[in-house]
Specification:
190 residues, 7 helices, elongated
Length: 190
């Protein structure tokens, strides 16, 4: 069971998280080799826009808008946030110019990790619910009885509440630092 959880639920996230860093270094290297480093400036804006668009999922989840399937919006959130994070990290490059942008990048990296952790918690909770459901069916419970018993699985709800209490403040602080970065560029550019 533990080995299966690792290969099914942990390893893919480790690979995607690692791929973010490898891709950042690769794109940064290519931009430098092709003498197209100036494109990195545009990557910051584009990546930020992709991340902002990915928040449509959060707006839907909080019932601020009603647009599309929650599952599709979650998948879109994940993809756009990952690509946006990649673009912002390429924008930052491997150069140290100022503290504020590096703090924002640090929080971006933590927010992405937090997103992967949330996805992992959700996958493990879903797997546990599926196992409980099978167990109840094997004991002879009807579909309605199983649904009643598993309606609000407290473990899943508690885990997700705990995770969100970390992910949301990190994301909000990232937004504040990104906004301060943009304002400092506007105020202090030549």
């Amino acid at each position: 069971m533990t080995k299966s959880i690792f290969f099914k639920n942990v390893l893919p996230y480790i690979i995607w998280y690692s791929l973010l860093f490898v891709s950042t270094l690769l794109f940064d290297y290519i931009l430098h080799k092709l003498q197209l480093v100036f494109l990195g400036l545009y990557f910051g804006v584009t990546g930020t826009l992709l991340i902002l668009i990915s928040f449509i999922y959060s707006l839907q989840k909080r019932k601020m808008i009603n647009l599309g399937s929650p599952k599709l919006l979650l998948q879109t959130h994940e993809v756009l946030a990952w690509i946006g994070a990649l673009m912002v990290m390429v924008h930052a490059g491997i150069h140290f110019h100022a503290l504020l942008p590096w703090l924002a990048i640090f929080l971006l990296i933590i927010a992405v990790a937090s997103g992967f952790i949330g996805k992992f918690i959700l996958a493990v909770a879903k797997s546990a619910l599926d196992e409980k459901k099978k167990e109840l069916f094997n004991k002879g419970f009807s579909e309605n009885e199983v649904e009643d018993k598993l309606h609000m699985d407290s473990i899943t709800v508690d885990l997700m509440k705990e995770w969100r209490s970390v992910h949301i403040p990190i994301t909000l602080l990232l937004g504040v630092l990104a906004l301060l970065h943009v304002l400092s560029i506007i105020l202090f550019s030549k």
